[in-house]
Specification:
The protein is built from seven helices and no strands. With 192 residues, the protein is mostly helical. It has one domain. The radius of gyration is 17 Å and the shape is globular.
Length: 192
């Protein structure tokens, strides 16, 4: 297995791993705000998110930025909470540019969450560009798998079981709010 393949697989497994469920919950909350007709927009959002966490992964790995992990561990569920609430509250922005920028910013935060894990792995590598690129491509592929699974389930339930699109938006967003609140309370204990 080549170095590229190894880090591609690590990135993919890192995102799909149920132990890293906070990232899965964020991607699902992001998807829940959109219908099947808006799949292209969701793909752009997921890519903006990937670009954000790719930037902070690179900057952190290169030791250009460093933010205490306690703060990042608190901010990650905050991004989930904001994303889930934006799906059900009436203040959702209609501006694509604003949504893409916020999603990119949230990606920056999530990337810092991955950075310690990746720094440990890349500490052994002489050249970090190839592993970093492969890891991020693996993350993006993992997110696309989550997105495809979500929209297939949505398509099935809406077309076969005649569930309303709103049901999934509210259901997934509600679960994401609950998980985010639990994570915020857990991580907030350390900060406050």
């Amino acid at each position: 297995m080549s170095l590229f393949e190894m880090y591609l697989k690590l990135g993919f497994q890192h995102i799909i791993n149920i132990n890293g469920y906070d990232h899965i919950v964020f991607v699902l909350a992001l998807c829940a705000g959109y219908s099947i007709k808006e799949l292209k927009k969701v793909l752009i959002l997921v890519t903006a998110f990937t670009i954000g966490h790719s930037l902070t992964l690179a900057l952190s790995t290169l030791k250009i930025i460093s933010i205490p992990s306690d703060i990042i561990e608190f901010l990650i569920p905050a991004t989930i909470l904001v994303t889930a609430l934006s799906n059900v509250l009436p203040f959702k922005s209609r501006s694509n540019r604003f949504i893409y920028i916020v999603t990119l910013f949230f990606g920056l935060i999530h990337g810092l969450g991955f950075s310690n894990y990746l720094k440990e792995l890349l500490g052994r590598e002489a050249n970090i560009i190839t592993p970093l690129l492969a890891f991020n491509i693996g993350l993006e592929l993992g997110q696309v798998v989550i997105l495809i699974a979500y929209f297939l389930i949505l398509l099935l339930t809406v077309n076969v079981f005649k569930a309303r699109d709103n049901f999934w938006r509210i259901f997934i967003s509600g679960i994401a709010v609950g998980i985010a609140m639990i994570l915020l309370m857990d991580t907030g204990k350390v900060l406050f």
